[in-house]
């Protein structure tokens, strides 16, 4: 797998775009101006859940338990953004739309953006910035332990997402670090699964688990299938 495959927040480098080729199609060779339009459209779409929360908050529509409402919303959007980020490489391979890779850093950073809100709600509102209380929760509740680990792994990926950091770290080390995105996805599913296990409600989480399974499975398949050797 190349460097471009494995990041939560991948810089749009000229090395990654078009590096692997794929099926040619009209959309495969999108001009720069249209790539920019797609980028803006994705940015606007990805901001919608945040704007919705601001709107609901300012009009007192969070319901009986505002903390639960916002924590669940930001948690869900962190997972959605993670899945969309992980979908970039398979989609690019299947369609030949190499410009998709240039959306990945932004998508990964949105995953971190929602993850940070989710985390800050827990640490600030839920735990009142009380370090001892916070560590107790991490140690005591396995679903928090797993979510916390996922977030801790996400932070360095976001911090090293700039082209400057890629250069500073060097390709290999940067690549190795960004492999963590696979662990993050698995931990995120585990976190969600554990959260729902208490209520014996596995409907939605099973769908996310299937999506992550397919996205990671495709990578493994492309890497290990006999033809690749
Ligand atoms: C990659 C990181 C993470 C992802 C993708 C994620 C995702 C989710 C999802 C999908 C839910 C369930 C939403 C629902 O019930 O509809 C959730 C719930 C929750 N998460 Fe996370 N989470 C992450 C990290 C964290 C961290 C770091 C913490 C705190 C240490 C945390 C604390 C919680 C709590 C307390 C809930 C339960 C909210 C409630 O039902 O009251 N999560 N998370």
Automatic annotation (TrEMBL):
<keyword id="KW-0349">Heme</keyword>
<feature type="transmembrane region" description="Helical">
    <location>
        <begin position="143"/>
        <end position="164"/>
    </location>
</feature>
<keyword id="KW-0812">Transmembrane</keyword>
<dbReference type="GO" id="GO:0009055">
    <property type="term" value="F:electron transfer activity"/>
</dbReference>
<dbReference type="GO" id="GO:0016679">
    <property type="term" value="F:oxidoreductase activity, acting on diphenols and related substances as donors"/>
</dbReference>
<feature type="transmembrane region" description="Helical">
    <location>
        <begin position="37"/>
        <end position="55"/>
    </location>
</feature>
<dbReference type="Pfam" id="PF01794">
    <property type="entry name" value="Ferric_reduct"/>
</dbReference>
<keyword id="KW-0285">Flavoprotein</keyword>
<dbReference type="InterPro" id="IPR013130">
    <property type="entry name" value="Fe3_Rdtase_TM_dom"/>
</dbReference>
<dbReference type="InterPro" id="IPR022837">
    <property type="entry name" value="MsrQ-like"/>
</dbReference>
<feature type="domain" description="Ferric oxidoreductase">
    <location>
        <begin position="74"/>
        <end position="189"/>
    </location>
</feature>
<feature type="region of interest" description="Disordered">
    <location>
        <begin position="1"/>
        <end position="20"/>
    </location>
</feature>
<protein>
    <recommendedName>
        <fullName>Protein-methionine-sulfoxide reductase heme-binding subunit MsrQ</fullName>
    </recommendedName>
</protein>
<keyword id="KW-0813">Transport</keyword>
<feature type="transmembrane region" description="Helical">
    <location>
        <begin position="106"/>
        <end position="123"/>
    </location>
</feature>
<feature type="transmembrane region" description="Helical">
    <location>
        <begin position="176"/>
        <end position="193"/>
    </location>
</feature>
<dbReference type="GO" id="GO:0020037">
    <property type="term" value="F:heme binding"/>
</dbReference>
<keyword id="KW-0408">Iron</keyword>
<keyword id="KW-0472">Membrane</keyword>
<feature type="transmembrane region" description="Helical">
    <location>
        <begin position="75"/>
        <end position="94"/>
    </location>
</feature>
<keyword id="KW-1133">Transmembrane helix</keyword>
<feature type="transmembrane region" description="Helical">
    <location>
        <begin position="205"/>
        <end position="222"/>
    </location>
</feature>
<comment type="subunit">
    <text>Heterodimer of a catalytic subunit (MsrP) and a heme-binding subunit (MsrQ).</text>
</comment>
<keyword id="KW-0249">Electron transport</keyword>
<keyword id="KW-0479">Metal-binding</keyword>
<comment type="similarity">
    <text>Belongs to the MsrQ family.</text>
</comment>
<keyword id="KW-0288">FMN</keyword>
<comment type="function">
    <text>Part of the MsrPQ system that repairs oxidized periplasmic proteins containing methionine sulfoxide residues (Met-O), using respiratory chain electrons. Thus protects these proteins from oxidative-stress damage caused by reactive species of oxygen and chlorine generated by the host defense mechanisms. MsrPQ is essential for the maintenance of envelope integrity under bleach stress, rescuing a wide series of structurally unrelated periplasmic proteins from methionine oxidation.</text>
</comment>
<dbReference type="GO" id="GO:0010181">
    <property type="term" value="F:FMN binding"/>
</dbReference>
<dbReference type="GO" id="GO:0046872">
    <property type="term" value="F:metal ion binding"/>
</dbReference>
<dbReference type="GO" id="GO:0030091">
    <property type="term" value="P:protein repair"/>
</dbReference>
<dbReference type="GO" id="GO:0005886">
    <property type="term" value="C:plasma membrane"/>
</dbReference>
<keyword id="KW-1003">Cell membrane</keyword>
